[in-house]
Amino acid sequence: MSARLSEAALATLPPDVARPAYDRRAVKAGIVHLGIGAFHRAHQAAFFDAALAAGDLRWGIIGVSLRFPGVRDQLVPQDGLYTLVERDGDARRLQLIGAVQTVLVAPEDPAAVVAALASPDTHLVTLTITEKGYKLDPATGALIEADPDVAADLASLDAPRTAPGFLVAALAKRRAAGLPPFTAISCDNLPHNGARLAQAVLRMAAAHDEDLATWIEAAGAFPQTMVDRIVPATTDADVADLAAVLGVEDQAMVKTEPFTQWVIEDRFTGARPDFAALGVQLTDDVAPWEEAKLRLLNGAHSGIAYLGGLAGIDFVHQVVALPEGRHFVQRLWNEAAATLSPPPGLDVSAYRTQLMARFANAALQHRTRQIAMDGSQKLPQRLLATIAARRATGAPCPALALAVAAWMRWQGGVDDAGNSFTVDDPLAARTAAALEGTDTAEEKVAALLAIDAIFPPTLRNDTGLAQMLAAWLHRLTTEGARATIARL
Ligand code: NAI
Ligand code: CS2
């Protein structure tokens, strides 16, 4: 086992590895992050690290995992240090991020998490807990109150379990101490992520103290954001390759692309970094940026994930290396782009060209299987809303429908070569149960469209769409994904 990355190892690292350009001992933790996964470490933490390097030492991070100790065990032995590895083809840039000061594991010590959130030093709380982590109904955005952890937090916040629970417990302490609320910033791929987080927090607060809910609604801030950086899950090979370069092992490293974008609604309760100086876009209207990104990047990603996964293709870049793969993406983008109201400053044609180059970045080794995860939580904002917009105007949507039909086929847990796989999705049991006893494509489509947690009534009751989905599903089943894409 190699020695681990740490403060003590900094002097031994190769000279071209960028080190933290500030005194980490002087940094205050102005940020608590819930869900300290790969994306946070490659996106928000990189921005906050730049704020520290610019001399504003208020923006250190206390990371929190609401579930497992893994990232804590990766980062704490490394004094919170990790390497941000930017890859683009053969190009590679290594930067050590020093912004993370420690990581807490909520189930081990929920009180410590509440205390960090309630600290006078804490001005921002950021979240990347995945679409399913908010415990919201994907179709309505309402808190799933039957969820055991949500139910427990609605009953008592003595030992919170959920993100809304932790936020409300801490906001209650802040109010009692005469402190202002923090600004809570969702950085997940959810539509209207700020409003959805606020809705969940206010529901949780009202269950305990109506006056607290009123205070949060009046004094709190839950800005909407659009976040973008492709960050594939780190593999053991990634860690080993980096260790060979650094001479020490960095178990918390993250691999990403050079591209990064963060659009935040300009709505804060108090102190915040100079986001504009950091290249973050502050705006009063995030929605058009969010819609363009979710429908173009993420919609194509999900179509690539299911069609590529069914065809046994492991990586995104391999799908878009196929002429039929690129053709599918362009057709889906033609359909999706027509539904957008692009924000001033977004050249959709140039954006599409840039997206295709990002997808083609073979160095990322972005697994189709990773993107296929949690489809029930992703489809509504990535594909279904776009289809609804197309159907509302009578516009055709064959590529979008093919992507949804591929998700439907994916629910069967068998790829085109007959290999079985586990459907990794919080609603996998529901889709499996729905498919029980079905035989024809029409029966399977009807059974899945009936899942109201995923499909809104406008699509569930659209017979023309159901026929299109059944036709695609039949072809996917009889001819396979690659042959079916070629028919588009
Ligand atoms: P990850 O797997 O590295 O981290 C996921 C984090 O969410 C972990 O801290 C995990 O403990 C937490 N989590 C998962 N399920 C949860 C639950 N039910 N309740 C509470 N916490 C839960 O994944 P990664 O790459 O950090 O992505 C996280 C989210 O960031 C994505 O779901 C997406 O919303 C957003 N994002 C990811 C991008 C990427 O390319 N990886 C890019 C843009 C946004
Ligand atoms: C991907 C996203 O895993 C997925 O669902 O589509 O994480 C994607 O990499 C990001 O949204 C890019 O910003």
Give the distance, in angstroms, between the N- and C-terminal Cα atoms. 51 Å
Shape: globular
* Computed structural class: alpha/beta
The tally of helices reads 21
Runs with pLDDT <50, length 5+?
A: none
**Could you name the CATH homologous superfamily of the largest domain?**
NAD(P)-binding Rossmann-like Domain
Number of discrete domains = 2
Please characterize this protein's 3D structure.
- Helices cover 46% and strands 11% of the residues.
- By secondary structure, it is of the alpha/beta class.
- The protein has two domains: 7-283, Rossmann fold; 287-487, N-(1-d-carboxylethyl)-l-norvaline Dehydrogenase, domain 2, CATH 1.10.1040.10.
- The chain has a five-stranded parallel β-sheet with strand order 5-2-1-6-7, with helices on both faces.
- Helix 7 (193-206) runs antiparallel to helix 8 and helix 10 runs antiparallel to helix 12.
- The longest helix is centred in the middle third of the chain and has 24 residues, at 287-310.
- The chain is globular.
- It binds 1,4-dihydronicotinamide adenine dinucleotide and D-mannonic acid.
- Residues 35-40, 65-68, 128-133, 188-189, 227, 229-231 line the site of 1,4-dihydronicotinamide adenine dinucleotide.
